[in-house]
Design brief:
heterodimer; A: 360 residues; mainly alpha; MetI-like fold; B: MetI-like fold
Chain lengths: 360, 325
């Protein structure tokens, strides 16, 4: 039998085998995945691109772009002025929404760095004379923050639900997963829209202090996307529970906590990272979808969805203001495409499959 | 078969019940009724309006009234007061709170055919195009053409349908002037919306067909067929396609759901008076009954389509028994 041959040491000394085994230094999964990712040119490029975009949008107040909020009395949107033709003199004014301490510091820093200098309307302006480039940068910020927050919430719920079900096993597991199955078959978008519309409309009655609308939006989005995460995590934990290295360390007398820290969590982590990157673009798409309908990010703020909605309105008019649609659409499309490519690359690198592993 | 259908019917009932309960509770627990947004009504009028729509009842009574054919009207079974809700189980989704003189059933009867026509057009062309692209990609695997097709389908998955819609309008309606910008009066009006609506689905199907076909082409029976001397095209058509299409077929249920969801924005962009645009408007206006009604009808549609797809799946893949689903 195959089972027996595993324990057949071929007449060698156990201590000698142990010494031999010690010579091998295990390569961490993350390091191997990282080098695999670097070899995948498209995924690596997407990663670098996303890092650049992320840093740029985080440091948006520091960039020498106009304020995304300042309006100019104009009759129609101004077309793009290419940078090399830009003759405008900067007259930057500090004009933002309520900035937090970090952003306020950045704005101060910016003033000391560039003074009154600001870029001209390189990508044109919208109907209120607001600079489109600045709005895209600040919009990407809002979209990225929303996607990250909602994904983090979905990760939290999904990991907790999936790991709990797998560890408990038996009837608890069956019921928890049945609930997930039932939730899968609900038309979530419709419930989400209903929920958002409800939290939106009677704000006067609810009072601003009671519910922060942004938080509601994050939670609602996160509550939609945790289902797949829960299934995948459960499968992974189930497989790990009965895997040989866990059994081996248990046989050697390791405590449950030690096993959890050294074997289960690191392995679940890689799967969670992959599904995080796969969830991010879906959440971003959902944010754009809802903002487009006027149910997501609300008007004084900007996001990709809102910008594209403005753009679509602009091209349905008699006069075609193509830049209002094209630039936000291209910006959103590249970010989403990069996220998808990175997610696929990570999945290949970490060799994770959506299929639940069959458990003995 | 009977077992399968019975289980699916039970699942459908459960799903609809959860949807109704969830949506109903969400709508009634948040303060602010459908009539509180407009100018303040005189107290007597407001009381009358509330009474007309049973908004003055306790929550459980409204719920029972909405859900079932059971009459809980204060005046008894044949009370003199006019019933405004027949109940979901009786197939009556109640009156619309915003569109006076319209019931939800009437609005659905008018708008659903438009949405279904748009949706099925989108599904049909996306299945056709997706399959062709997937087969070509798998047959010419690794070639330049395959690379381009794969990039195209990645783009189709990454781009939201409203971006594609904007692009199509910009190019085909406004620049070239071939097709109308918006409306729903002729077949030409449906071309651009259905293209935009179906694009993500087509991209997904192309990807699934390509992967499925490549996997099928690596099987032993394909090698046998080629060894018999059959031309490659016949092998693909007669032998590989049957197995290779299975993943795409199991995706058709989610695809239909995606098309129904996507129609919310597409109908807005192209000014098509379908159920999707009614739903968005009703959610924004807090037209409780209309929003609930659309959600219920769409749940039933999506659930039944999924069951149909599963049924078709077992016909095509004899390895899977109905009882396992």
């Amino acid at each position: 039998m195959a089972e027996q041959s595993r324990w057949d040491l071929g007449g060698r000394d156990v201590d000698a085998l142990y010494l031999e085994a010690q010579r091998f230094r295990g390569e961490p999964l993350s390091a191997r995945a990282w080098s695999k990712l670097r070899k995948n040119r498209a995924a690596w490029f997407a990663w670098v691109f996303l890092c650049t975009i992320g840093i740029a949008s985080l440091l948006a107040p520091l960039l020498p772009i106009p304020s995304p909020k300042t309006m100019h009395p104009v009759t129609r949107p101004a077309p793009p002025v290419w940078p090399w033709l830009d003759k405008t003199k900067g007259e930057f004014r500090v004009d933002y929404w309520n900035l937090n301490a970090f952003d306020a510091r950045l704005v101060e820093l910016r003033k000391s760095m560039y003074g009154k200098f600001q870029t001209g309307p390189w990508l044109g302006t919208d109907a209120q004379g607001r600079d489109l480039l600045a709005r895209i940068v600040w919009g990407s910020r809002k979209s990225i923050v929303t996607a990250l927050a909602a994904t983090a919430i979905s990760l939290g719920i999904g990991v907790a639900w999936g790991a709990w079900a797998a560890l408990k096993g038996g009837r608890t597991d069956r019921w928890m997963m049945r609930i997930v199955d039932v939730l899968y078959s609900l038309p979530f978008v419709f419930l989400v829209i209903t929920a958002l519309a409800l939290f939106d409309a009677p704000r006067a009655n609810l009072g601003e202090a009671l519910v922060n609308r942004d938080v509601v939006f994050f939670v609602v989005l996160g509550a939609v996307f945790w289902l797949t995460m829960a299934r995948v995590i459960r499968g992974q934990v189930l497989a790990l529970k009965s895997s040989e290295f866990v059994l081996a360390s248990r046989a050697m007398g390791a405590s449950t906590g030690w096993i959890l820290r050294h074997h289960v969590l690191p392995n679940v982590f890689s799967v969670a990272v992959v599904y995080l990157t796969l969830t991010l673009p879906s959440v971003m798409l959902a944010e754009a979808f809802l903002s487009f309908l006027g149910l997501g990010v609300q008007a004084p703020a900007v996001s990709f969805g809102l910008l594209v909605a403005d753009g679509v309105d602009a091209i349905n008019a008699l006069r075609v203001h193509w830049w209002l649609f094209t630039f936000p659409a291209v910006a959103m499309a590249t970010v989403l495409l990069a996220l998808f490519v990175l997610g696929d690359g990570l999945r290949d690198a970490l060799d994770v499959r959506a299929k639940e592993p069959t458990t003995p | 078969m009977t077992h399968f259908l019975a289980r699916r019917a039970l699942g459908l009932a459960l799903t609809v019940w959860i949807v109704v309960t969830l949506a109903f509770l969400m709508m009634r627990l948040v303060p602010g009724g459908p009539f509180s947004a407009e100018r303040r009504l005189p107290a007597a009028v407001a009381a009358n309006v509330d009474a007309r729509y049973h908004l003055d009842w306790p929550l459980w009574r409204q719920y029972v009234q909405y859900l079932g054919p059971l009459n809980v009207d204060t005046h008894g079974l044949f009370g003199d007061r006019e019933r405004v809700f027949g109940g979901v189980l009786a197939g009556d989704l109640g009156p619309s709170f915003r569109h006076r003189d319209y019931t939800v059933n009437q609005i659905l009867a008018e708008s659903l055919p438009v949405s279904l026509a748009l949706g099925s057009l989108a599904l049909v062309w996306s299945i056709a195009l997706g399959t062709v692209i997937g087969v070509v990609g798998a047959a010419r695997r690794g070639s330049k053409l395959d690379l381009w097709l794969r990039m195209g389908s990645s783009l189709g998955i990454a781009l939201p349908s409203f971006v594609i819609a904007g692009l199509l309008v910009l190019v085909f309606a406004l620049t070239l002037g071939w097709l109308p910008v918006a409306g729903n009066t002729s077949f030409a009006h449906f071309v651009l919306p259905s293209l935009a609506l179906g694009a993500p689905v087509a991209a997904y199907i192309a990807r699934l067909v390509r992967t499925g076909l490549i996997e099928a082409l690596s099987q032993d029976y394909i090698r046998t067929a080629i060894a018999k001397g059959l031309p490659f095209s016949t092998v693909v058509r007669r032998h590989a396609l049957r197995g290779g299409l299975l993943p795409a077929i199991s995706y058709l249920g989610p695809a239909a759901a995606g098309v129904l969801t996507g129609s919310l924005v597409i109908e807005r962009i192209f000014a098509i008076p379908g159920t999707g645009s009614h739903f968005v408007a009703s959610a924004l206006d807090r037209d409780y009954t209309l929003a609930l009604g659309v959600t219920i009808v769409y749940s039933v549609l999506i659930y039944s389509l999924n069951a149909l797809v599963d049924l078709a799946y077992t016909r095509l893949d004899p390895r899977i028994a109905l009882e396992e689903l």
